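Could you join me in thinking about how sequence relates to backbone shape in a protein? We need material for that, and I hope you will provide a protein of your own picking. Once you have written the record down, we can walk along the chain together:

…
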Amino acid sequence: MSIHDEANLLLPRSAVQNANVKPIGDDDVLTPDEVSMTTEIAEALLELQQYLSDNLAPLMVAESISILLEQPASLAALHIEAWAAGQYKGPGASVPASDYLFHAVKKIHLMGEYKLVPAAKLARYLAELGDILDACCPEGDRQLLAENLGRLGQTGTMLSSPVSMLHRQMGAESSLASGAEPSGMRGAARGNVTSVGSMGAGGSSDELVRSLRVFNLLADRLASSSGSASSAGSPGIVTLAPEEHAPAGGGSGAVFPVHEAPRTTPSVQLLEAAVTGAETTRQLQELLDRLRHLGVPGTGDVVRSLSRALPDWTPPRTGDTASGGRADATGGVARAIRRVVTLGEPEEADRKLRELVQTAIEHVNEGSLSRSVALLDVAEKIIVSGSVTKEAARMARSAGRNALDSERLRVLSERADKRILLRRVLEFFPAFSPQRLLAELEVESKRDARRLIIALVECHGLAGRAAAMDRLQSSATAATEGDWRFQRNLLYLIRRINRQAGTSVEAEIELLERFSEIERSPSLVKEALSGLGQIKHERSAQALLSRLRGLENFLMGTDELPHPIEEMRQMLDRTVNALTSVALPQTLRAVIDHGLKKQPRFGDTVQRLASLSAQDLSAHKELTERLVKALESVLPVKVFGMVLPGQGSDPGHLVAALSSTPTPRVKEVLARAARLFPDREFGKAAGRALAAYDHPPESGAVVLSGDVELFGLPTLFQTLDQSSSTGVLSLRNAKGETVATLTFESGKLRDCRVGTLRGLDAAYQLFERPADGHFVFTRRDDVRSNDDPFSEPREVVPILLEGMRRYDEVQHALALIGDGTAYKSTAVKPSSPAEETDAKFLHAVWTASAAGTQLREIERQLATDTYRCSRLMAHWIEEGALVAR
């Protein structure tokens, strides 16, 4: 049976005759007398059938649908008939003919939902088309089709999809109408259709529909701002300037009047809308081709273009192990990037994943760690989801070792505020794992390369420390002693990376004690001694006391020294410093005993007493008195105007040893030294110590400051959180004016004020309109007040995540609205989004926006943040209730 026979079965000849059109037979064609079949109309009909099969995106056929709306509906009905008949190929289908007719009408109806054709004209056309198709429908399904066609426009939209996602009617899924299935349709493949109902509620269809609406609205707004006319001829599509930028904004009336950081441009939002609105790779390419024709930059490499629009901050890690501890707060741009990669065939997805990772590497090499981390998080989610092959994932992860710039890594690793983000980059690439880095360190001969490797392992934090401990234990138990340089670097890493709170130190002390044996390499011994000094524990104290006695015995003995005498004295220096750091009574006593010994073989022992300068010895009266008497014995004496030198060494070392011990006895001797010898260096040091006693560090001292742009608000918030800081964070503009004040208590947010806003809305505003400026954090002992907005301080991480989410929403809204654009109401009745339940606020925003008040002024008048106002205005613009004046 030919397709024409199937078409005649689908639409009974009587029905076609009633519709005043001819059925398609082997010899039947439409004559010019029946329809003026111009080339333009023929092309429009061809595009209609391609659109029904989802080979063209809605935006691509907008012009063709507009042309067909000017023709009799019977013309489209005839070609819908031919298209429907052509769907029946292969065995096993059980779908009513009316489903295909409904699918076609629904697809045309969606053109109005997308605002691609005039709604009123489309409604009249669909009514006529529905009547014709209803008459053509098999009698058993006719009532069902009529009921579902009548519901169009009353139910939520469902974006068309490939024929595998057929728009089926409500009530049609159970079976075909009895006796209504034409014989020519029994060959339809069962797998070629899927009920809309099977997609489930709350799927991605609403987002796809919204994306195409936004796409069209953005093009209209850009056309208005550029003043250029569309060369493509499609409704609502205009030619864009190659370098399109967001409007500058609304001046000084902003709630947070600091110079705003750059935000995503309408061109980027167009790219995002195109990606989100495409269902297939082919549709995406067609949308990008249209954008390229219109002059939108970035269509050649969508991933790279979208990545430039990512905010230069990164969500904090969360405790969600299912997502690898990553918070999904990078917004719609990141989701669009993921969709670009996963939209096509597996081979294409593999290639795009490699491009995505290469783009992330480029951002690292440019110094933009935040954007790189966001991209690598997207890549990680793609890999975990199984959207790419294992080989593609392996190749993507192996790309970093040679592509990441070593000098850039060195600079970033030296920045304490960058290490958290750099760690997340390193974690994506197996070649930068702590274990692989340590293996390289063991054989690396170049000093600069070793330093870089050590810095990268340090960036890994606890994971790097654990790996270093494992290698150090293996080295200590080996049959032969390993390379002492490698062992020293491992000891250095253990000392530099803080251990996890509550971790047992017994095994670590045992290792350090073993590597501090005097007979080992001096550099190795000194590193191990410093490590012991960081552990305030009885066992580490005993190990250090043993080393002190051993070194003294070696130097006083007659046997040959294991190392040159200068090396032995340097070991003594390191041992005394370590004993002071442990700061237990027995270690402090040992330091003073050693320092007051007069043994030339030991070197300058008094000089080593200066290590006590940070220790308050007030609780150790005996030790304090010994130091005071020693100081008095070496102070010069004035007799009849003559200065007689004291006994022994320079008093400056003993002054330093007592400089943090504010007892009356110490003050007395320091005052005498400062008064009698104001021009001598030790007298000046005594004066400074006395001044410090009288003026201890006060609450209110500035402990952290810098540029908001460089430090980044999320990083700054996390720093205050992790350090459990209590105090006030002030954000200042270029003139030095304070524009925002945040109060932290033990790392949690107690209060926030931004302009007229206070509390959470004020905190969110800092993210909704990110701004450049300077920050100063001032320590305060007590930050509580009687009018705090929160009963208890708020955790920082949830505020960061919500702030970043709002930033993304605001970017989409501002791309539609424009800060400097005035609007007016239309005949469309405005609706209220489900998220906004405050009727009074809704009315106030609507009244102001419909009267032409610009966004920033509405924010100021209503004393609210950008998010609440902008999402309402964007919603009304999308549904057509507001248009630009």
